[in-house]
Structure formats: structure tokens, C-alpha cells
């Protein structure tokens, strides 16, 4: 019960209270038990307005950022969405409450296994998860109606742009390791409209088209 109360408070104060009004996003974040996606020792902080460590130098994003990025995808409910960077699985779980199918890629096997257990526990049967280099997307399942990248990239991998369906939206943090700009790209045939959304700071997107381990 205390987690349910904390979750309602999180949504009202941190999400709706900061200008996110998409009812599908608000409903999904009201339903997904965020405390299950954090380390047991940090459960009492699960609904706080901050990112939290999940091991392997990764984090679960601040609730507001999850809400903002999800709303920026402008989801109607029938989409096929690619998420790059499963992490704890929380963002994928939120998406799964909204869209038809989620495809999520994680490079760290231990995090992927942990997330898969939570998806099964919560009955989220519309999530496909694989361990792979997410910087090259998931070509076998493309095109996607939306792509969300939950790590900061030094540039925009062309694979993401090419794997978007016409009219599809890509939301990705781009910049240095120290800070990025959250960008949205909308595909219009053979061109992509680009928009800067807000400043942010994510863990690095590591892989063939992102940062290499040891890069500055």
C-alpha cells in the first residue's frame, strides 16, 4: 500500500506536475511498480525524483525523464517500439503498458536476465528482449514506429534512422559523456526532421556505433 501511495504521488508531482499530460503515459507510470526495478536496498527511494544505480555502472532513469521521453514518442497504442538499453527494464515495462509490442536490447547479460524475470513476473508478454550491441538497432524486426535510446551517444547512428518507419519517431540523447541534448527525429520519407528537446545526462551508449570502452 505504501508503494501504491508513493507511486501516485510520483505521478502527480513529478510527472503531471511538471507538464506531462499524455493520459497513456500517466496511466502506465501509475501501474508499473517501479520499486521492483531497483536494488532491494534502494526500494525506499524508488519513487524519488532521481536516477538510481542498478549495478554494472548503469542507472534507472529519473521518473520525470522516463515520462518525458515516453511522451516525446507520441504513442497512439498500436506501435512497435525499439528500446536501446534495457537496463533495469522499467522503461520497457512502461512502454509495454502503452504499445502493441516492445523490442528491447541490452548489452549486459546479467541486466537482461534480471529484466526478463521482472517482465515474466508482471505478465508483460509483449516484450521481446535480446542481448546484443544496441547501437546497431534490431534490423531483423525493423521498421519500428518509434525508437527510444536510454544512453548518451556521441552521434546519431544511421541504423536508427534507417530502421524507423515513415512517420516514426526517434528520441535519443546526443553529446559528450558529461552531458547531452535529448533530440527527437521524425522520419518524413527520405528525410528526418530534427528537434532539440532538453539538456540531460545519461550513461554512455557503448558499442560499435557509440562510445567504445575507454573512450573519453
How is this structure best described in words?
The chain has 216 residues and is α/β, with parallel strands linked by helices. The chain is built from 6 helices and 9 strands, in the order H-H-E-E-H-E-H-E-H-E-E-H-E-E-E. The strands form 2 sheets. A 7-stranded mixed sheet has the order 5-4-3-6-7-8-9. Strands 1-2 form a two-stranded antiparallel ribbon. The protein has helices at residues 2-15, 23-31, 63-72, 90-96, 109-121, 158-162; strands spanning 52-55, 58-60, 80-84, 101-106, 127-131, 144-149, 164-175, 180-188, 191-200. It has a domain at 51-200: Rossmann fold (3-Layer(aba) Sandwich). Helix 5 (109-121) links the parallel strand 4 (101-106) and strand 5. The mean pLDDT is 97. It is globular, with a radius of gyration of 16 Å. Helix 1 runs antiparallel to helix 2 (23-31), helix 1 packs across helix 3 and helix 2 (23-31) packs across helix 4 (90-96). The longest helix is centred in the N-terminal third of the chain and has 14 residues, at 2-15.
Helix content: 25-40%
Tell me the quaternary state. single chain
**Backbone structural class:** alpha/beta
Q: Rg from C-alpha positions?
A: 16 Å
Q: What's the CATH first level of the domain at 51-200?
A: Alpha Beta
The CATH architecture name of the domain at 51-200 reads: 3-Layer(aba) Sandwich
Measured by DSSP, the beta-strand proportion falls in 25-35%
Question: What best-fitting shape do the alpha-carbon axes yield?
Answer: globular
Give the ordered list of helices and strands.
Answer: HHEEHEHEHEEHEEE
How are the strands ordered across the major sheet? 5-4-3-6-7-8-9
End-to-end distance: 45 Å
Integer average pLDDT? 97
Number of helices: 6
CATH topology of the domain at 51-200, by name, is: Rossmann fold
CATH superfamily of the domain at 51-200: Vaccinia Virus protein VP39
Number of strands: 9
Low-confidence residue ranges: none
Amino acid at each position: 500500500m505504501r508503494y501504491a501511495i508513493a507511486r501516485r504521488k510520483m505521478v502527480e508531482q513529478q510527472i503531471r506536475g511538471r507538464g506531462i499530460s499524455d493520459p497513456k503515459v500517466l496511466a502506465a507510470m501509475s501501474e508499473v511498480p517501479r520499486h521492483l526495478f531497483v536494488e532491494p536496498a534502494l526500494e525506499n527511494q524508488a519513487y524519488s525524483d532521481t536516477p538510481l544505480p542498478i549495478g554494472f555502472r548503469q542507472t534507472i532513469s529519473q521518473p520525470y525523464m522516463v515520462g518525458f521521453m515516453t511522451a516525446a514518442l507520441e504513442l497512439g497504442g498500436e506501435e512497435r517500439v525499439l528500446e536501446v538499453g534495457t537496463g533495469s527494464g522499467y522503461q520497457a515495462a512502461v512502454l509495454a503498458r502503452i504499445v502493441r509490442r516492445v523490442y528491447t536490447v541490452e548489452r549486459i547479460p546479467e541486466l537482461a536476465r534480471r529484466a526478463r524475470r521482472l517482465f515474466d513476473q508482471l505478465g508483460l508478454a509483449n516484450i521481446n528482449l535480446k542481448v546484443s550491441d544496441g547501437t546497431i538497432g534490431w534490423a531483423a524486426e525493423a521498421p519500428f514506429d518509434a525508437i527510444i535510446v536510454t544512453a548518451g551517444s556521441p552521434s546519431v547512428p544511421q541504423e536508427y534512422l534507417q530502421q524507423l518507419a515513415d512517420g516514426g519517431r526517434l528520441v535519443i540523447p546526443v553529446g559528450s559523456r558529461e552531458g547531452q541534448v535529448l533530440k527527437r527525429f521524425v522520419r518524413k520519407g527520405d528525410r528526418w526532421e530534427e528537434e532539440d528537446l532538453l539538456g540531460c545526462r545519461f550513461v554512455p551508449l557503448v558499442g560499435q556505433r557509440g562510445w567504445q570502452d575507454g573512450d573519453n
